[in-house]
Amino acid sequence: MSTALLTDRYELTMIDAALRDGTAARPCVFELFARRLPGARRFGVVAGTGRLLQELREFRFGDDELRYLRDHAVVSAETLAFLEGYRFSGTIRGYREGELYFPGSPILTIEGTFAEAVVLETLALSILNHDSAVATAAARMSIAAGDRPLAEMGSRRAGERSAVAAARAAYIAGFGATSNLEAGRTWGIPTMGTAAHSFTLLHETEEQAFRSQIDALGVDTTLLIDTYDIHEGVATAIRVAGPELGGVRIDSGDLPTVAAAVRTQLDELGATGTKITVTSDLDEFAIAALAASPVDSYGVGTSVVTGSGAPTAGMVYKLVARQDSAGGWVAVAKASADKGSMGGRKAAFRTLARGTATSELIVVSDGFEQVETAAEHPDARALQVTLVDHGETDASYEGVGGVARAREHHAFVREELPITGLALSRSDPALPTVYEDA
Amino acid sequence: MSTALLTDRYELTMIDAALRDGTAARPCVFELFARRLPGARRFGVVAGTGRLLQELREFRFGDDELRYLRDHAVVSAETLAFLEGYRFSGTIRGYREGELYFPGSPILTIEGTFAEAVVLETLALSILNHDSAVATAAARMSIAAGDRPLAEMGSRRAGERSAVAAARAAYIAGFGATSNLEAGRTWGIPTMGTAAHSFTLLHETEEQAFRSQIDALGVDTTLLIDTYDIHEGVATAIRVAGPELGGVRIDSGDLPTVAAAVRTQLDELGATGTKITVTSDLDEFAIAALAASPVDSYGVGTSVVTGSGAPTAGMVYKLVARQDSAGGWVAVAKASADKGSMGGRKAAFRTLARGTATSELIVVSDGFEQVETAAEHPDARALQVTLVDHGETDASYEGVGGVARAREHHAFVREELPITGLALSRSDPALPTVYEDA
């Protein structure tokens, strides 16, 4: 399925005009970055990169796409011919998926002709903005949960394909499982889930429902105990399953109170190993508030898939450098004060002191050449890698392997955050962004 | 592409247990509804129905899907055999797409066996929750904009496939166009867009960029005038295009002030017919605040695709009635007080007085038979139609035609709202939900 029309019309009309005036082939550098962190958070988490690389492979204008553009007179015949042969042949460098980012971090740097790079604006932003918003919220929940496992179960509160991407982003940022089967199939994420209230209501009694579930899924299953009275539900669950019952799930009520009462009741019934999962309207703050409660794991729905108040990361895709008609490089930026962005090509480093991050160092150059200043910053970690090299994608960032790699990288870089970076409250970014001329 | 794994795992494990205990084939009634309107809004707008009907056609477990479920031991061999033959053969009645809804409105009623109906929970909710959230926000913006055209341009702030659905939902709720080309192709929505700041920055001067755009797109195009100084931008635009220029776009600054200054300048230059489009961080409140400003049209991005603060409609999918082992019907509902829902099958009517809606009347019955009370409510409009009849989908609600029909229906039903229903401020729903026994 072609991804080429997941594009704002103005990208094609710009190509149309640029092909006509001769600027379409000018070498350009575009940058994808965030001006600020939504929700006054301490850090953002990059996610979606692997998905973008895969969708870039499908970014082709086939017969159907060209027919639509021709029938609706979107662009000229010359532009249709250009699009028919379109393949991105440029280079994309960027932050690894799972990496942290801060205001101004050059998350992706796209080099190519104007025409081949400008046309990726919408697709790149759609994917990175959505997935990074979810991953950022998920990372905060993961910090709040500590060692307790988190499962993502918010598919029903997200568009049906975004739900799959959300499960993937949450997994990269520290969740351990998802309820979404397509996310399991496509991205290799462990899936979980046993029964809803409808299963209990389908049966004449709660006891019949529990018995049926145990017959099918074994005594290690998790029983949902709050369809009717929770105290009765727990008693019935242990009567049916015995004290070896794997777990109970609570989906309503004042969770600290209910969890404590259920734990006491389970222990009194000898079910000391039976785990408690809670799943009712949790976000990072509710999870943090349950830290002292006898809860074994969390299921999070709406808040993680909607970015917990920040459903988009707000990243932008801007031209930052181009060649002029004489072949020299020029740094460019929009002048409007309220939307200022920094022109020029950038290299990014995270400076560290004894293993703890101290700044987001961004070295700015007017030129096209890759800025290599790692040697001048021996304590800094270089943040950018080559994702696409002259049209050739590094497949190690794609697919199931790419997800595993991103999850591992995220866990690694989160350890570098200063302790203040772990706080959930609104504040400034955990690291200052420092600009330096090349 | 199969949609069958866009499903939470627990739906399949419930089927697994129900097939084993003999309850899987019990006739059931599920209902999709909202307990409340997010954001304390006056009404909600149903959207996504036509998409659901299309994705229901693709809800088949093929070899790839079955292999994944088998390899990961999600369900038993017996359940795999059931899924292999799965086709929804039940009946879905519901609100027309574009209809208004209120707390408790039975937006969809799904009748079928437990197994065939429970498995649609996630897909139905993913689509309706997302699309209705966008449509509800869009309707409020459309009310705020009055007769001025609205364009949706938020694709970059939504997952790449949700972006297409968002454009569709906004169009149903009153927007006139979208920037998203895939939405144009798939759903027949007019597309718009001319140029971004990068096009100006690509050129040595703003004048060169404007000249190039006019050469390609004609003097009727819209020029983006705020890359550098807005006053200079307007002067350059008219110098290059002449007073016949189609429009200018402003994407930054304090819009009431800037729009007034640009209008004055355009008029002084004789460009009295040149239109002004504004596109900077608009939501329904910002649009309302521009009512007295000389603005001709609005472009809305982030806020419409993210539901303007309510990114999900929060609808749920609940078992409300089932047959018992003796073949009689039983109304069922979860008891937990904080998540109470009303059991029983429901028929819904909007009562009217002299053309203005007065209540959402919901007639509740325990039984399976369709409640036919329209005759008893001669001033009421019946809200439910048959979307799928024993497995046969009514194709008139699908595709481009379905979108056009939904848009028309929305415009019609919005006229019935009492005047207080048009207010943007937080309040109670515009209509009370009234329950009546059949």
From TrEMBL, chains A, B:
<comment type="function">
    <text>Catalyzes the first step in the biosynthesis of NAD from nicotinic acid, the ATP-dependent synthesis of beta-nicotinate D-ribonucleotide from nicotinate and 5-phospho-D-ribose 1-phosphate.</text>
</comment>
<dbReference type="InterPro" id="IPR007229">
    <property type="entry name" value="Nic_PRibTrfase-Fam"/>
</dbReference>
<dbReference type="GO" id="GO:0016757">
    <property type="term" value="F:glycosyltransferase activity"/>
</dbReference>
<keyword id="KW-0436">Ligase</keyword>
<dbReference type="InterPro" id="IPR036068">
    <property type="entry name" value="Nicotinate_pribotase-like_C"/>
</dbReference>
<dbReference type="InterPro" id="IPR013785">
    <property type="entry name" value="Aldolase_TIM"/>
</dbReference>
<feature type="domain" description="Nicotinate phosphoribosyltransferase N-terminal">
    <location>
        <begin position="5"/>
        <end position="129"/>
    </location>
</feature>
<dbReference type="InterPro" id="IPR006405">
    <property type="entry name" value="Nic_PRibTrfase_pncB"/>
</dbReference>
<dbReference type="GO" id="GO:0004516">
    <property type="term" value="F:nicotinate phosphoribosyltransferase activity"/>
</dbReference>
<protein>
    <recommendedName>
        <fullName>Nicotinate phosphoribosyltransferase</fullName>
        <ecNumber>6.3.4.21</ecNumber>
    </recommendedName>
</protein>
<dbReference type="Pfam" id="PF17767">
    <property type="entry name" value="NAPRTase_N"/>
</dbReference>
<comment type="similarity">
    <text>Belongs to the NAPRTase family.</text>
</comment>
<comment type="pathway">
    <text>Cofactor biosynthesis; NAD(+) biosynthesis; nicotinate D-ribonucleotide from nicotinate: step 1/1.</text>
</comment>
<keyword id="KW-0808">Transferase</keyword>
<dbReference type="InterPro" id="IPR040727">
    <property type="entry name" value="NAPRTase_N"/>
</dbReference>
<keyword id="KW-0662">Pyridine nucleotide biosynthesis</keyword>
<dbReference type="GO" id="GO:0034355">
    <property type="term" value="P:NAD+ biosynthetic process via the salvage pathway"/>
</dbReference>
<keyword id="KW-0597">Phosphoprotein</keyword>
<keyword id="KW-0328">Glycosyltransferase</keyword>
<dbReference type="GO" id="GO:0005829">
    <property type="term" value="C:cytosol"/>
</dbReference>
